[in-house]
From TrEMBL:
<feature type="binding site">
    <location>
        <position position="140"/>
    </location>
    <ligand>
        <name>Zn(2+) 1</name>
    </ligand>
</feature>
<feature type="repeat" description="CXXCXGXG motif">
    <location>
        <begin position="197"/>
        <end position="204"/>
    </location>
</feature>
<feature type="repeat" description="CXXCXGXG motif">
    <location>
        <begin position="157"/>
        <end position="164"/>
    </location>
</feature>
<dbReference type="Pfam" id="PF00684">
    <property type="entry name" value="DnaJ_CXXCXGXG"/>
</dbReference>
<feature type="binding site">
    <location>
        <position position="160"/>
    </location>
    <ligand>
        <name>Zn(2+) 2</name>
    </ligand>
</feature>
<dbReference type="InterPro" id="IPR001305">
    <property type="entry name" value="HSP_DnaJ_Cys-rich_dom"/>
</dbReference>
<comment type="subunit">
    <text>Homodimer.</text>
</comment>
<feature type="binding site">
    <location>
        <position position="157"/>
    </location>
    <ligand>
        <name>Zn(2+) 2</name>
    </ligand>
</feature>
<keyword id="KW-0677">Repeat</keyword>
<feature type="repeat" description="CXXCXGXG motif">
    <location>
        <begin position="183"/>
        <end position="190"/>
    </location>
</feature>
<feature type="binding site">
    <location>
        <position position="197"/>
    </location>
    <ligand>
        <name>Zn(2+) 1</name>
    </ligand>
</feature>
<dbReference type="InterPro" id="IPR002939">
    <property type="entry name" value="DnaJ_C"/>
</dbReference>
<keyword id="KW-0143">Chaperone</keyword>
<dbReference type="GO" id="GO:0005737">
    <property type="term" value="C:cytoplasm"/>
</dbReference>
<dbReference type="GO" id="GO:0031072">
    <property type="term" value="F:heat shock protein binding"/>
</dbReference>
<dbReference type="GO" id="GO:0005524">
    <property type="term" value="F:ATP binding"/>
</dbReference>
<feature type="domain" description="J">
    <location>
        <begin position="6"/>
        <end position="70"/>
    </location>
</feature>
Length: 375
């Protein structure tokens, strides 16, 4: 684990950062390194690094363990339940005959699966229902997961008598020692299959393509996970299936930006509109609305459209939409327009009405046109 960077360093945070700071840092960096936006060679690896750091630090329990142990697995110190710490189980088995080992024939839960789904910006806002196809391991139908030819069944191993373990007795100067290990005849399963199923060749499982309906709730964001119970790989010996985790990646939008449940956009104003005031039409996520621009509005001023943001994933209502206005500098003026601006400047005004480039203005207009069309 020595090659892993500190998770706080990855998110560019101090160790005492709040939960909100962690969320903001993750959103910023996830947007920066998202493979759909950043085509750099290391973008995907950095995105995964940021995601791993966020998954740990956003969970209070995981963060507490990380703050105490860092990248070192605390199980190696004996803190992990269900695992023999430091191999002590084998030592006790050697001296005292063991006991308490897991039944090799007990039902076993199937593995969890993860599927990464990329969705459009507005699909994350409004939600959607879609179908995906995933490869997964399922119990073999002809043998019902036993691995034995239909009409037959596995038999108890004659060496370990179905326990899955062998005892090796050694006489030492300290006395008689018993060491237990997995049975080499049945590989620790306790069962022998004499006649194997022709469909799965004795494995009890087969690879299949499964089509699953996924319902994405309105208001999800980059990195959100959807858990589908029982849609993971099949269990063993009657054990339950694992779960399927859908990890969402959200594409960026040309006109709208998102911060939590709020939406941000930038619209252009002419110098006359900003100076004299006007009423303009603004595209939102669902409709077009009127926005009053007061006389004397300065460039980079923000206006808020209450309730025009993203539906709250947990709770009621919507966030807001924040509109930033940018004053467009004229680039092609007639002689008459130039004379009028000079007269205006002579009266104490200024002919400098903005600093953005022509290309930037055109880009704003293009993005706004697409937003009006609902793109």
């Amino acid at each position: 684990m020595a090659d892993k960077r500190d998770f706080y360093e990855v998110l560019e945070l101090e160790k005492g950062a709040s939960a909100e700071d962690i969320k903001k840092a993750y959103r910023k960096l996830a947007r920066q390194y998202h493979p759909d936006v950043n085509k750099g060679a290391d973008a995907e690896s950095k995105f995964k690094e940021v995601k791993e750091a966020y998954d740990t630090l956003s969970d209070d329990q995981k963060r507490g363990i990380y703050d105490q142990y860092g990248h070192v697995d605390p199980n190696q110190f004996g803190g992990g339940g269900g695992q023999d710490a430091g191999g002590f189980g084998d030592i006790f088995d050697m001296f005292f005959g063991g006991g308490g080992r897991r039944d090799p024939n007990a039902p076993q839960r199937g593995n969890d699966l993860q599927y990464t789904m990329t969705i459009e910006f507005k699909e994350a806002v409004f939600g959607k229902e879609t179908e995906i196809t995933i490869p997964r391991t399922e119990n073999c139908d002809p043998c019902n997961g036993s691995g034995a030819k239909p009409g037959t069944k596995p038999e108890n191993c004659s060496v370990c008598r179905g326990t899955g373990q062998q005892e090796v007795v050694q006489n030492t100067p300290f006395g008689r020692m018993v060491n237990r290990r997995a049975c080499t005849n049945c590989s620790g399963t306790g069962k022998i299959i004499k006649d194997k199923c022709s469909n799965c060749h004795g494995a009890g499982k087969v690879k299949k393509q499964r089509r699953i309906t996924v319902r994405i709730p309105a208001g999800v964001d980059e990195g959100a996970q959807i858990r589908l119970n029982g849609e993971g790989e099949g269990g063993t010996r009657g054990g339950p299936n694992g779960d399927l985790y859908i990890v969402l990646r959200v594409k960026s939008h040309e006109f709208f930006d998102r911060e939590n449940d709020d939406i941000y956009c930038e619209v252009p104003l002419t110098f006359a509109q900003a100076a004299l005031g006007d009423e303009i039409e603004i595209p939102t996520l669902t409709e077009k609305v009127k926005l009053k621009i007061p006389a004397g509005t300065q460039t980079s001023t923000y206006f808020r459209l209450k309730g025009k943001g993203v539906p709250k994933l947990r709770g009621y209502g919507n966030g807001d939409q924040h509109v930033k206005v940018t004053i467009v500098t004229p680039t092609s003026l007639t002689d008459e327009q130039k004379d009028l601006l000079r007269q205006f400047g002579g009266l104490g005004g200024s002919t400098s009405v903005g600093t953005d480039s022509e290309e930037h203005h055109e880009s704003i207009f293009d993005r706004m046109k697409k937003a009006f069309r609902g793109d």
